[in-house]
Amino acid sequence: MGSESSIGLRVSRYRPESDPGPGWQEYDVPLRTEWTVLDALNHVKNELDPTLSFRWSCRMGICGSCGMNVDGEPRLTCGTFLVDHAPGPIRVEPLANFHVVRDLVIDMTDFMEKLPRVKPWIIRDEEQSVDDGEYLQTPEELDAYKQFSMCINCMLCYAACPVYGLDPDFIGPAAIALAERYDLDSRDRGARERLDVLIEHEGVWGCTFVGECTRVCPKHVDPAGAIQRYKLKAAKQSVMAVLLPRGAR
Amino acid sequence: MTKRRLEPFVWLMFSAGGVLAAVFLPVLAFLFAFAFPLGWMTPPGHAHLSAVTSHPLTVLFLLGFFVLLLVHSAHRFRYTLYDGLQIKARRAVALLCYGGAAVGTVLALAVLL
């Protein structure tokens, strides 16, 4: 390949069966304007080194599987172009704050365990029967939560969050944004149940409003905004619990 | 649930202090750093200012203002020590920061009265 148009890829490798810890491996890949970091990794996998492991699927910013730290910044590699990181070498690492399974593959078990705690589904007091038809929603009611529904669970916000890095018990940005998404849904009645989880220290109070989650979010969900809204909700509830008699909550 | 927790109340004071600081501190900085020294505006006389600040309503407002600003800075400083400098003595840090705010409150009260 012509050396005039190539770029170095410095990839973090970790093979638990043979490596004592993560190390670096360098690859030279063609520098093409339309190529993303994911394209470069696929080139490595197909042409140079089939042992490299990484997750990817849709290559169009929807599936949320190709998140990695590119030059120290959590990114969807399918939306990160090589030319923006020229002249390189480009540092590609697994997302920070997670255990590494192998090479660039992280272990998401912690998030998968936390997500259901905030009950990210529509909760009804009583389910209306199929004969009664669908739950109608106006465009305004849709707009109320739409932004928070754009989350693709790509984990970039967890990789960027210094609080999650320091305190893995923190429930984290995406989970809180998704709780807010269902709270704001006009069909949902589960706000109280979610608040019971998020009002705890590991819920919203862990957040110190660094705001990195919102900065790195590829879908502009604004998890930091969701957390601040939730803090206000939780604070209001706490004040009411003190001021109001027991019966009125 | 409805376990009594301190965090929501500290956070409410922290937020209120942040809003007040953002709204009023630039005004103070503008008046005392630029407008008065550069002669854009004539500063009020000492007697006038002193009369304004000794009115009970002003005292009440200023006290609330100072307390919230102090809690705001204590809270910020506390997390700077926890997370920024990685100080593990959490109880001592909290005591130092909020204790400092409490001392500041007493001092503010002494100055105002």
From TrEMBL, chain A:
Residue ranges, annotated region (Disordered): 1-23
EC number: 1.3.5.1
GO BP term (any one): tricarboxylic acid cycle
Reactions this protein catalyses: a menaquinone + succinate = a menaquinol + fumarate
Keyword Cell division annotated: no
Superkingdom, taxonomy of origin: Bacteria
Pfam families the UniProt entry points to: Fer2_3, Fer4_8
Keyword Iron: yes
Keywords, alphabetical: 2Fe-2S, 3Fe-4S, 4Fe-4S, Iron, Iron-sulfur, Metal-binding, Oxidoreductase, Tricarboxylic acid cycle
Protein's name according to its UniProt entry: Fumarate reductase iron-sulfur subunit
Species for this entry: Nocardioides iriomotensis
